[in-house]
């Protein structure tokens, strides 16, 4: 009976203590974070911020550089677009003018157009057909041998032979003028076979409609 009463007494004390707001058993107080750990955490956080800033800065730099080089390339292409066609057109026109001016040569005392002369004239036909406003003057010439009168007539025959060839290949006769310089305008002042061969020729000068020339 005493044992039972003792147990009830202990339980009653505990119940009373609970009812009167007795403090609960103490819990361990929070321990401060070591300074080293706090410094490490702070350093890692700042490093993360710096890394993020560096990545963003690098990205913006790449965008700026790309925009710069794109603008430079656009300017270059615009310059080529503006200057290219005009430059190309001028170059083509100059080349065609040169081809129209290529001389045709003849054998001694003859006015027949030679095979290499026909090749040059065929090219002139193509250019003249592509540029219908061009008008040419054809001038026949001779070397120094023979009389002045003879060489003037021979020069006329050579110009006529060239003109006939062009007309037979589709060029309007009204676009072709004839002349003869005889022996009076040599392109080589020598007195040997090489000089004479160069002086036996037909020359071509554009009279009108020469700019710009093009091949259609």
Task: Provide keyphrases for this structure.
single chain; 216 residues; alpha+beta; 60s Ribosomal Protein L30, Chain: A; four-stranded mixed beta sheet; 5 helices; 59% helix; 11% strand; elongated
Can you put this structure into words, describing what you see?
The protein is built from five helices and four strands; from the N terminus they run ααβαβαβαβ. It has 216 residues and is α+β, with helices and mostly antiparallel strands. A four-stranded mixed β-sheet has the order 1-4-2-3. The N terminus is likely disordered.
What's the β-strand tally?
4
Q: Kindly, what is the distance between the CA atoms of the first and last residues, rounded to a whole number of angstroms? A: 134 Å
**N-to-C SSE series?**
HHEHEHEHE
Low-confidence stretches: 1-24
User: What share of the residues does DSSP label as strand, in percent?
Assistant: 5-15%
CATH superfamily of the domain at 103-208: OmpA-like domain
- CATH architectural category of the domain at 103-208: 2-Layer Sandwich
Number of helical segments?
A: 5
CATH class of the domain at 103-208 reads: Alpha Beta
């Amino acid at each position: 009976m005493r044992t039972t009463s003792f147990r009830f007494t202990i339980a009653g004390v505990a119940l009373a203590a609970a009812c009167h707001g007795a403090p609960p058993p103490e819990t361990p107080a929070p321990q401060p974070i070591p300074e080293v750990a706090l410094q490490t955490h702070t350093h890692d956080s700042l490093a993360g911020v710096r890394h993020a800033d560096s990545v963003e800065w690098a990205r913006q730099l790449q965008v700026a550089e790309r925009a710069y080089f794109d603008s430079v390339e656009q300017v270059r292409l615009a310059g080529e677009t503006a200057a290219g066609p005009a430059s190309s057109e001028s170059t083509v026109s100059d080349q065609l003018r040169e081809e129209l001016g290529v001389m045709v040569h003849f054998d001694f005392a003859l006015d027949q157009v030679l095979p290499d002369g026909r090749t040059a004239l065929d090219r002139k036909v193509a250019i003249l057909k592509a540029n219908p406003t061009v008008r040419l003057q054809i001038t026949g010439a001779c070397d120094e041998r023979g009389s002045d009168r003879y060489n003037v007539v021979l020069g006329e025959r050579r110009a006529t032979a060239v003109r006939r060839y062009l007309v037979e290949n589709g060029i309007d006769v009204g676009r072709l003028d004839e002349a003869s310089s005889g022996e009076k305008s040599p392109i080589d002042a020598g007195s040997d076979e090489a000089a004479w061969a160069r002086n036996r020729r037909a020359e071509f000068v554009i009279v009108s409609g020469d700019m710009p020339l093009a091949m259609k």
